[in-house]
Amino acid sequence: MMLPKHILMLVTGLRGRLNSCLALAQHLHDAGSYITIACPENHGVEVESLGLAYHQLPPTSYDTSGTKSIGEAKKSLGVDHLEGTIKSLSPDFLLIDIELAPHIIVCLASKIPLALISSWFDLHRAPSHPPLTSSLIPPISAKAADRAWQKYNWRRRKHFFTKKIRWRGRAYRSVLCNLAKDHEVEIKRLVETKDFFALPFYWKTIPILSMNLYEVDLPHLLPDQIHYVGPMISTERMQSEKQMEQYYSISQFLDVHANKKICYCSLSTMPTVESPLDLIVDAFSSMKDWAVIIASKQVAEPKMRENVFLLDYAPQLTLLQRCTIAINQGGINSINETIHMEKPMVVLNGGKFDQAGCAARIHYHKLGIAIMDKFASGRLQEAIYEVNSNPIYLNKIKKLKNAAENYRSEKVLEKSIIGIAENYA
């Protein structure tokens, strides 16, 4: 069986996820499918510059709290005309971002074969497999993993219960259930309402394509619905005028410090409880044989201080090529791109969403060192010297880079989609 002729991809438009989804789309396009990207944020110029078709979707809300009626809440989801859009585009297969819950519901009603796209590791509960919010590193006892799940589920139940009491039928999950009823989608049969991560529902019967390496996850048995298809790295990114201007300043800095080891540090775009920016600057201020480029949204304008260059944006793939090691806060897209460029890393747990779980996986597989809690600058210096001097980290990274290349050469993505389509037939 061949790949579906026309694949419609519905994506959120969030930058890190968009980069991965566009890489996935280009891969499928090169494999022979016609790809249409549909997005509630405006990325038409960027998508079409890659030779892919684009359809603009209405904006979507991920929080219906504060709306005045259930009708207004459903309208804010931006899916009133999605059924008609799907019919007019006439795709053979649907790929939908796992965070676009209202779009998933409407797509299920279309009866077209589909799968969900996820940048997360496997979300389901398994023995000795803690939730992605957990910083636990194996070996993990079943009791410790259970406690982590109980703690997380308690927080989620409290969150959903509070929303439901305050907003009643206008709470996001309640609105999604109402939408499912409108489209005759039996949501209770399709979802799990506990023991999963971040989403209003866990879609327990829908195939999920995880854009990661199974080899980076914690060891556990996968459910049949999870398909690891390998990281999707987009190397053809459209750069804004401001981003292009950064290249000149960065090149100057690298030329000045050409005889030093270079560290590239990417701090999360998500707000964290306490930014490590000052500690990182302090750590490198006494490391005279190193220079560091730090990209952080906290930086209002570019600043150079001896061996430290601070800026709000940096061309990540370019700098990962040039650097000796990388520092990040556990964002999976940064991790995958660092592996792609074969650089060991230090992960400073950002504490948001899956960052702790990603940091734990990097530490467990010895792809770098994870610092989970508050730290002094000396602790960071020790981690930097260790990952730079100990070859085990780089060797592990190279093995995973080879594994990623094998996913591509063995056509894991194509085989997964073909298999899913066949099961729908």
Describe the structure.
With 425 residues, this protein is of the alpha/beta class. Helix content is 43%, strand content 16%. The chain contains 16 helices and 16 strands. The strands form 3 sheets. The protein has a 7-stranded parallel beta sheet with strand order 3-2-1-4-5-8-9, sandwiched between helices. A 7-stranded mixed beta sheet has the order 12-13-11-10-14-15-16, sandwiched between helices. Strands 6-7 form a two-stranded antiparallel sheet. Strand 4, helix 5 and strand 5 (114-118) form a beta-alpha-beta unit. The N and C termini lie close together (11 Å).
Number of helices: 16
**Proportion in helices:** 40-55%
Q: What best-fitting shape do the alpha-carbon axes yield?
A: globular
Largest sheet: 7 strands, parallel
CATH class of the largest domain: Alpha Beta
Our measurement of the CA-to-CA distance between the termini, rounded to an integer number of angstroms, reads 11 Å
Order of strands, main sheet, comes to 3-2-1-4-5-8-9
The fold-level CATH name of the largest domain is: Rossmann fold
At CATH level 2, the architecture of the largest domain is: 3-Layer(aba) Sandwich
β-strand percent reads: 15-25%
Please indicate the count of domains: 2
Helix and strand composition category: alpha/beta
Low-confidence stretches: none
Note the quaternary state here: single chain
SSE topology:
Blueprint: E1 6-10, H1 15-30, E2 34-39, H2 44-49, E3 53-56, H3 70-75, H4 82-89, E4 93-97, H5 101-110, E5 114-118, H6 142-167, H7 172-182, H8 187-190, E6 191-192, E7 202-203, E8 208-210, E9 226-228, H9 241-256, E10 261-266, H10 277-285, E11 290-295, E12 303-305, E13 308-311, H11 316-322, E14 325-328, H12 332-340, E15 345-348, H13 355-364, E16 368-371, H14 377-389, H15 391-409, H16 412-424
Parallel strand pairs: 1-2, 1-4, 2-3, 4-5, 5-8, 8-9, 10-11, 10-14, 11-13, 14-15, 15-16
Antiparallel strand pairs: 6-7, 12-13
Helix pairs in contact: 4-5, 10-14
